[in-house]
Amino acid sequence: MAEDIQHNQKANFNGLTKSAKSGASKKLTIKNFKDRPELTDSYTEDTWIKLRDAVSAIQNSTSIKYNLEELYQAVENLCSYKVSPVLYKQLRQVCEDHIQAQIHQFREYPSSSLDSLSFLKRMNRCWQDHCSQTIMIRSIFLFLDRTYILQNSLLPSIWDTGLELFRTHIVSDGAVQSRTVEGILEQIERERNGETVDRSLLRSLLGMLSDLQVYKDSFEQRFLTETNRLYAAEGQRLMQERDVPEYLHHVSRRLEEENDRVISYLDQSTQKPLIATVEKQLLGEHMNAILQKGLWMLLDENRVCELTLLYELLSKVKGGLMTLLQAWRDYIKSFGGEIVSSPEKDKELVQELLDFKDKMDHVTQRCFQRNDNFINAMKEAFENFINKRPNKPAELIAKYVDSKLRAGNKEATEEELERILDKIMIIFRFIHGKDVFEAFYKKDLAKRLLVGKSASVDAEKSMLSKLKHECGAAFTSKLEGMFKDMELSKDIMIQFKQVCVLHIFPILIFRTCNGLSDQCVCVCVCVCVLQMVKLQEVCKLFYLGKHSGRKLQWQPTLGHAVLKTEFKEGKKELQVSLFQTLVLLMFNESDEYSVEEIRTATGIEDGELKRTLQSLACGKARVLNKMPRGKDVEDADRFHFNSDFTHKLFRIKINQIQMKETVEEQVSTTERVFQDRQYQIDAALVRIMKMRKTLSHNLLVSELYNQLKFPVKPADLKKRIESLIDRDYMERDKENPNQYHYVA
């Protein structure tokens, strides 16, 4: 504040001084020594008295009797006559006497706390007066300041002399300084408590302390100590009283307030230690408590605003982000672990994982400023919890992909399906047992291709491309082979149609996929079981004639037929499965059958038979009537042909109720994966030992872990080593049982 006053008043008085110098030059012609008055004791004395009176008038705020130009010229004349040292000494003494007289008004001021504000105002008025008086005096004695004082480096300027005298005789007085600082601290505390204070008064007084170079020693240390005490107590109290979101907003508001104080009246040098003190007491001391009390709640409720604020606040505290990072990692492991480890949630497991991943991605992008450390921690946490339950997540992800790629999935467009597959691949990357995924995915892909249930060939190939990019060509070679087999089967199908025509058989459509699963699809009006058996034999001979060395395996559950049927409404075509065909063909002989009679005649397994009867008698298209009525099929139920059946379409597709994958099928697939893993371990062991010849047990196990791409337990490795020793592929060292040798 003092500097502002000095700048403004200097501008005024400098202009005045220039005009004074200009007028004096015209009257006295400074460069012409003949025009100067003769130096005598009386002249010197009279001139000093005139100057002293002017200074006293300025200090007492009374009018100056003399013209300012005349006073300026008088100082210049005295300096020209080499009396500058005496003039400087006398001027300093006059100023010092005046300032010494000012101290009494502060020492005698009442000490009541109610008078602290008026004390500060009086101190500020005294300081403002002193600054303006010093600037006025300096303008008169400017010639002295710019010549004699400037040439003597040991002498302070007139302005600095004024500051030194004020500091020495007023501010450095112990009682006065203490009361001034306490008054300022009291005003700041009131403002922190929500009261309105005179900021311009505080700005002026703190500017005074800064100009007098006592700011740090007299004020800043005490201010920071009081700040530390205030916020330490406030932090302890509010952590007990408020929830975390409210507390975070309070801390943010407090930091904004303190920054505003620095801008408004505190010295800029105070900002760094002040903010550090607030952050330490409100954040650093309660960092763990904040995270334990509120982080999981903020993440559960997806409080983006508060999470962003939490990240910004903790980033200012030493070690804050690392502590937040660890708590963030622990949350992901815990929440994700609950999803994966709950068998009752298996149906929703993959979707919940995708939703959880989306949510965590959103938090890292919006709240954590895409910090690489947080992104990597999230990936590590996902990889950790998703592999705590071996094999099952990989199996469920494969089934989830199957549900999305099946025909009839109307949940997503092609673009949305592509985005879903991309998200699935992100989850897929975290899985260690990718061979489990491959086994189930391959089985489901075969089913989709065999029965023509694939939603889109482009989507299938897109998924294969993603898997190939992620795991390599070897991972997808068998899967890609299935599509090639589907193309080859079209040619076989054309050739077999010709064979059927030559044998005067009903048209038989034949498909094969990867030489693993074959189906026969009958299109006929009335084909008895005996005719089907005969057709199977013809099909078998034809296929084995084309492909020697292969085994033809029939999949009756995958067959379907189109039956022409007559109802009262008229003729209809029913597109049904092979099992539904066998059941419906029975009603050509009789109008009513019991469950036992149907079972005996068709030989269909009990569970499959009940699902077949349900689809025909309990679904949307009820071509059979069940007695008694109900959704479930019991052994005592009877069925008769529904001649009153009506439908707006001519060809009606009756969907077979699909049986979910049985436990036996799951176990069988898992066992195949386990067997494949054993072969891979054996092959890796032989490769390593063949190359190294001799290895210790620990080094051999270490090499195996580096080569194997699936998780394996040390006990399983030990069993495979023992198996190879028994089969004479390797042997133990006779002296050191932990040493192995390759047997050529």
TrEMBL record:
Residues 392-617 form the Cullin family profile domain. GO terms for molecular function: ubiquitin protein ligase binding. It comes from the Eukaryota. Keywords: Biological rhythms, DNA damage, DNA repair, Host-virus interaction, Isopeptide bond, Phosphoprotein, Ubl conjugation, Ubl conjugation pathway. GO terms for biological process: cellular response to UV; DNA repair; proteasome-mediated ubiquitin-dependent protein catabolic process; protein ubiquitination; regulation of protein metabolic process; rhythmic process; ribosome biogenesis. GO terms for cellular component: Cul4A-RING E3 ubiquitin ligase complex. Pfam families: Cullin (PF00888), Cullin_AB (PF26557), Cullin_Nedd8 (PF10557). The keyword Phosphoprotein applies. PANTHER family: CULLIN. Belongs to the cullin family. This is Cullin-4A.
